[in-house]
Amino acid sequence: MTQTIHEPPTQTGTATGRPRSGPARQRAAAGTRLSDLISALPWIGPALVLIFGVVLFPAVVMFYNSTRDISLSGLDKGPVGFANYATLLEFTPLGGIMLRTLIWVVAVVALTVLISLVLAQFLNKSFPGRQIVRLAVIIPWAASVVMTTLVVYYGLEGYIGIINKFLVDIQLIDGPYGWTKNPVSAFSWSIGIAVFVSLPFTTYTILAGLQSVPGDILEAAKMDGAGRIRTYFGIVLPQLRGALSVAVLINIINVFNSLPILKIMTGSIPGYDADTVMTMIFKYIQNEHKIDVASALSVVAFLIVIVIVAIYVKVVKPMKEV
Amino acid sequence: MKKSLRLGGIVVTATLATMSLASCGFGGGNASGGSGGSGTTVNLLVPSYSDNTQALWEGVISDFEVANSDITVNLEVQSWDNLTDVITTKVQGNAAPDIMNGGPFAGFAADDLLYPIDEVVSADTLADFQSSFVENASVDGVQFGAPLLASARALFVNEDLLAQAGVTAVPTTWSELLDAATKISAIGGGVAGYGLPLGSEEAQAESAVWFYGAGGGFGDASAITIDTPENLEAAKFIQTMVDAGATQADAGATDRSPLMDVFVQGKIGMIIGLPPTVGQIAEGNAALNYSVNPIPTVDGKAFTLGVADHLMAFKNDGSKQEAITKFLDFFYAADQYVPWVTAENFLPTTQSGSDAMGDTPALAPFIEALPGAQFYPSTNPNWSATDAAFKSLIGQLAQGKDAQTVLTEIQAKSDEG
Fold first, then answer.
1. Which PROSITE patterns match (chain B) (predicted)?
2. With 70 as the cut, is the pLDDT of residue B17 above it?
3. What are the residue ranges spanned by the domains of chain A?
4. How far does B358 lie from chain A, in Å, by closest CA?
5. Any idea of the CA torsion for B56, B58, B62, B63, to the nearest 10 degrees?
6. Number of domains comprising chain B
7. pLDDT at B133
8. Cβ contacts (< 8 Å) between A291 and chain B: which residues?
């Protein structure tokens, strides 16, 4: 997966921009395939070792663990086939957890992209102090996610939280409310935080896209009498297709795999009414010490991400040049 | 087709490279043990009880290393939150510590990872453990844990709030507790009558206080019994407390430590506390007018929940038995052990320690209550699952979920193991 994401820049980055497969196939037919491979190895080798060592090897170990019976103290007691997956299927809250994962990903990604589009448009205009505003947008990115989340978490605390106090003071609520102690409110706040920390990357990706919109096209649209809204939806947005689709793809993967925000915000809520797949994996490891079942759920999560990304790549074709 | 062949070649090459790299990384775990030739290294894994824990152990270790120059002790301090993950990972990677300080050990004993304790302490040390802790440290009659420290629970009462609410006597039964807590809550201004921490941090402890207080409990070493009529009565009474507004808001998701801070700040009337709570109040709000009392129960019959943590010795390759014995004997001698337990504000588990500490006034109510304490059935193989089930499910009581359903869920999780 990583390969497919990183290939296009090298393609478009070369001066000719020709696809590599054509010439390669011709040479392969000439029988120099092996020497080609050997001469390429010093360049692709490190990347391959990294992909295998950091991505594939752990994935294989994870799958292996998911088919074993691992005791609470971590001892491998032998193979059990797919019994751990069966345990997962019997776990009734799993349906709600899957649904919540979907809501989590869709809500966070959609809100992030919409707000980023507006922000990027704003930052693309020149105005006094633009540098400072651009810098300010980066801050949530530079700060640790855990720290950002903890700031909000303590702000929402019932006895000492300033957000709670503020809401009481402006008489929006009668008394402090346990925002992080009830599933729906804690989950909603988490979505807000996730959007906040995803904004910088998305905004900057879109901003880069905006800056690559050729000025002459915009000028032409103006001369043809297109209004601002027409220009935006007819000219600018289609030009942003590349930037947007990559931003959405990376956000989907990131948000799906995000643990710290939900772990902090919903961690103290009893039951499974605020859990996503990721927090559930964490609960299996941390609370129940079931490494085998946690591995099984991780494999499921891994497959879900691959399927989502595959569908996305197939439908949206984010790698296609505009 | 040909392209895929080429890709196959790359895949094989990279896999081989990775596997050889990975095997280097994975092999290292076990080697640290008997290496060096000149001496033995003992790996010690401990959780952090307080900010002093690391310094206290370092003091013990440096004294020990002076007395035994051929043994080196490696200290690793982890937070309680991470301890179980750390040990599970270590066991899975064949790199278990030699001595660990932890809670439940039945799982390790069942997996045959531990030395029976009489093989790693001298007869004198073994005889010094108070008998009430020995049973709790044994599985099927074999003692695997060396009791390290104990705690008991008691009801901490904010006397000022009690007086302000017009309650004259500290409650001893549930109905008195409900009445007093409701009156204190009625003071308003963010004051709560009874602090009920059913959040995941230590939900099993608060549950035990109520379940055992109703004459029920968690069961014993052979059977975990959660879904019983007595426990149901307790669960329903917890809901009565919540519904009457006698507790703080969102009791089901409130963790113990933050709630204790609120009690120290003087905003909670009554809460179940531990020996270290005494020190915490002295440090945080010495002006707090409080008293330490027996836990109220359904019929007023005194009860306390005791918890003992243990040191356990892992077998690993079996080469360090002698060094482990030396270290444990050294540590449990009164001159090392008593200052250690005192500094951590817990109760001693040895007879000599108890004799030396019996006259500490702040701990007196706890030391008195300890001999009759009830313990978690932590030697039951299903206890870990039960503990986890309490942590993640019991809080639903305070969210209005049917009490019977909650108990059934916990019992099911527990039986599942």
1. PROKAR_LIPOPROTEIN
2. no
3. 94-316
4. 36
5. 20
6. 2
7. 85
8. 88, 92
pLDDT of residue B162: 95
Residue A180: its chain B contacts at CB < 8 A? 253
The answer to whether residue B408 is domain-embedded is yes
Q: Which candidate in B392, B394, B409, B413 is best for mutational testing of the A interface (most A CBs within 10 A)?
A: B392
The verdict on residue B23 lying in a domain is: no
Is it the case that residue A27 has pLDDT exceeding 90?
no
Q: Give Cβ neighbours of residue B10 (< 8 Å, ≥ 6 apart).
A: A37, A44, A48
Q: Are residues B168 and B292 in the same domain?
A: yes
Say what the pLDDT of residue B13 is. 52
Q: Is A7 on the interface with B (CB under 8 A)?
A: no
Cα torsion for B315, B317, B318, B322, to the nearest 10°? Answer: -100
CATH architecture of A94-316: Orthogonal Bundle (1.10)
**Is beta strand B154-158 parallel, antiparallel or unpaired with respect to B290-293?**
antiparallel
Instruction: Tell whether B293 and B336 lie within a shared domain.
Output: no
How far apart CA B388 and CA B404 sit, in angstroms, is 18
What is the 3 state secondary structure string of A26-82? HHHHCCCHHHHHHHHHHHHHHHHHHHHHHHHHHHHHHHHHHCEEECCCCCEEEECCC
pLDDT at B165 over 50: yes
Q: Are A75 and B111 inside 8 Å of each other by CB? A: yes
Mean pLDDT calculated for residue range A230-258:
90
Q: What count of other Cβ atoms lies within 10 Å of the Cβ of residue A86? A: 12
Provide, as residue numbers in chain A, all residues whose Cβ is less than 8 Å from the Cβ of B85. 285-286
Same domain flag for B260 and B391: yes
Q: What is the rounded CA–CA span in Å between residue B364 and residue B289?
A: 18
From chain A, the residues in CB contact with B113 under 8 A are 73, 75
Q: Which of B18, B108, B250 sits opposite A181 (nearest CB)?
A: B250
In terms of CA atoms, which chain B residue is nearest residue A266? B253
CA distances from A288 to A41, A281, B91, B176 (A): 45, 10, 16, 37
User: Are both B265 and B128 inside the same structural domain?
Assistant: no
* Residue B166 domain boundaries: 154-303+382-416
Return all residues near B346 (Cβ < 8 A) that are at least 6 apart: B49, B149, B150, B151, B275, B276
| Distance, CA of B100 to CA of A73 (rounded, Å) | 13
pLDDT of residue B19 exceeding 60: no
Residue A35's pLDDT band (boundaries 50, 70, 90)?
confident
Q: Is residue B9 part of a domain?
A: no
* Contact criterion met (CB below 8 Å) for B286 and B178: no
**Pairwise CA distance, residues B33 & B29, whole Å:** 9
Q: Which of A29, A51, A270 sits opposite B393 (nearest CB)?
A: A270
- Nearest-Cα residue of chain B relative to residue A70: B92
| Pair (B63, B123) in one structural domain | yes
What are the tens digits of pLDDT across the range A61-92?
999 999 999 887 788 888 998 999 999 999 98
Facing residue for B255 by CB, picked from A53, A57, A268: A268
Q: Mark whether B217 and B135 lie in a shared domain.
A: no
- The model's pLDDT over A277-288, given as tens digits with 9 standing for 90+, comes to 999 999 998 888
A176 has a chain B CB within 8 A of its CB:
yes
Lowest mean pLDDT among A9-13, B93-97, B102-106, B249-253: A9-13
In a domain, B8, yes or no: no
pLDDT at A219 over 50: yes
Going by pLDDT thresholds of 50, 70 and 90, the confidence category of residue A41 is: confident
Half-sphere exposure of A10 (CA within 13 A, CB side): 8
Domain of B273, CATH number, reads 3.40.190.10
Q: What is the pLDDT of residues B342-383, one digit of tens each?
A: 888 888 888 888 888 766 777 777 877 777 788 899 888 888
- Same domain for B91 and B138, yes or no, is yes
Q: Where do we find the tokens 């494999």?
A: A299
Is A153 in contact with B255 (CB distance < 8 Å)? no
